[in-house]
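Lab channel / #folding
Pinned by the channel admin:
"Please post every new chain as: sequence first, then the structure tokens as a reply. Keep commentary short and put observations after the output so the thread stays searchable."

First post following the new format, from NK:
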Amino acid sequence: MELNMILTITRRADSEQFAEFFRNYGCSVVMSVVANGTANKSVLSMLGLNASEKMVSMTFADTSLRRKLMRKLSSEMKIDMPDRGVAVSVPFSSAVSSAAAALTPATPADRAGNTDAKEEETMESKYELIITICNGGYTDMVMDAARSAGAAGGTVIHAKGTGAMTAKKFFGLSIASEKEMVFIVAKTANKKDIMRAIVQNAGADSEANALVFSLPVNDTAGFRLMED
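Reply from TO:
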């Protein structure tokens, strides 16, 4: 069974509607966190979006269910319409939990189509999810660097580091515990340039102290206007 994380970014006002959508299709676990958008006014205008508070929701699905959900997000939830949101699917390399299999039980039909699923997942991804973890208050520095390399915008989640107290106690170091996570969905062709720009302008040698990594995206919804 191949497990995928479906990451949905919507307006906060629509978050419960999307959570109910996922539950109706059998996703028993839906986790949500409040976030803020970073897209500039020209991009917001192009996509017909408002600068409203966002909600990032995460749920899990096997390959068969993932395909169905991504189709239904477009046809049923109208996620391709202006100001509705975007969704990406990220494949897991592994999942260890006694409850992991219970999240999305594989059916005989799923197993029968497993070969096709593996072939699909090995295809080159059109998009990648770039995740940057930086010190709190330096999102603008990260996004300015990313935009200089072609990024359209991102979504910010406030977080907290767990190693600050340990470092201070044992090494005498002062590490900012308040962190921010910046999610940027970019075309694969632009990924390296964006990541390089962030590292050069907001990396370890800067006050942002940003750490950057990327994850492959095997499916998307809500990007039709951007692609057009």
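NK: Strands lie at 3-11, 30-37, 54-62, 85-91, 127-135, 155-160, 178-187, 211-217, 219-221.
TO: also worth noting, The chain is about 35% helix and 30% strand.
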